[in-house]
Design a protein that fits this description.
There is one protein chain. This protein has 240 residues and is α+β, with helices and mostly antiparallel strands. The protein is built from five helices and 13 strands. The strands form two sheets. A seven-stranded mixed sheet has the order 7-8-9-10-11-6-12. A six-stranded mixed sheet has the order 1-2-3-4-13-5, sandwiched between helices. The relative contact order is 0.22.
């Protein structure tokens, strides 16, 4: 586990968010972030996730303005506020990704962790991203994750473990391998967007919550029950 450092890794939430976005676009192969008065716009280029607008400094007026201006399918908004604060500002057509948190951790050289008996760990680098894959004894998928260093910071992303292979320490194995790889490439601070499923794992490895993270995506067909944004939470996403 990286040693806990009481010194804040960033001077502001806006700085932490910019570091997260910088690594996230490398990890996902997205377009370069475009600065906006309220934050950053990123073209992702996927049918279900065309563009995301990340607010580094969100307030009610800004959220309402962007929710109206960017109301189109596959468009996402990201805000670093509590869900109950944001919910009244958005209509039911904005569907929540689920509870989220922006988390950070100091990176350090970590002792190598062996995989459980029968499991195999593979790792490779391409396009500025280090990927880790854990294969089960039968050669099938067990766990994965990736990290994108961008100078002193590195973004951990897409960490997941197959349900059939959980509670074997594979998530921790993937995280330790990724953190070590990022540190070897010069990064000293890790950043990630956590879901409910991942937060416990990350905290057990020394990560700390830096800010709440609310993500919503516009849907032309909102839920028939007309549920508010906070009621649409689902923890089924791997990374933000």
């Amino acid at each position: 586990m990286p040693p806990h450092d009481s010194t804040p890794p960033f001077d502001s939430t806006a700085e932490a968010v910019r570091a997260w976005v910088a690594g996230w676009v490398v990890s996902r192969g997205a377009a370069d972030p475009v600065p906006q008065p309220w934050g950053l716009t990123v073209d992702v280029g996927l049918p279900h996730h065309a563009t995301r607008h990340v607010m580094t400094d969100a307030d009610e007026a800004t959220v309402r303005k962007l929710a109206k201006a960017y109301a189109a399918p596959a468009v996402a908004l990201k805000m670093f506020l509590e869900p109950e604060t944001v919910a009244p500002w958005l209509g039911v057509e904005w569907v929540s990704d689920g509870p989220g948190w922006l988390m950070t951790a100091p990176l350090d050289a970590l002792p190598r962790t062996d995989a459980p008996e029968g499991y195999t760990v593979k790792s490779w680098q391409r396009g500025g991203v280090t990927r880790v894959l854990v294969l089960a004894p039968d050669g099938g998928f067990a766990a994965r994750g990736q990290v994108a260093p961008t100078g002193r910071t590195a973004v951990v992303d897409q960490v997941e473990t197959d349900p059939a292979h959980r509670r074997k320490g594979l998530g921790a194995l993937v995280m330790r391998t990724l953190q070590g790889a990022a540190y070897e490439q010069g990064a000293t601070v890790g950043v990630l967007g956590a879901t409910t499923e991942g937060r416990g794992l990350y905290e057990s490895l020394g990560w700390r919550v830096y800010a709440p993270l609310v993500g919503v995506t516009y849907s032309a067909e909102p839920s028939q029950d007309g549920l508010p944004m906070t009621a649409n939470f689902s923890p089924a996403h791997h990374g933000r």
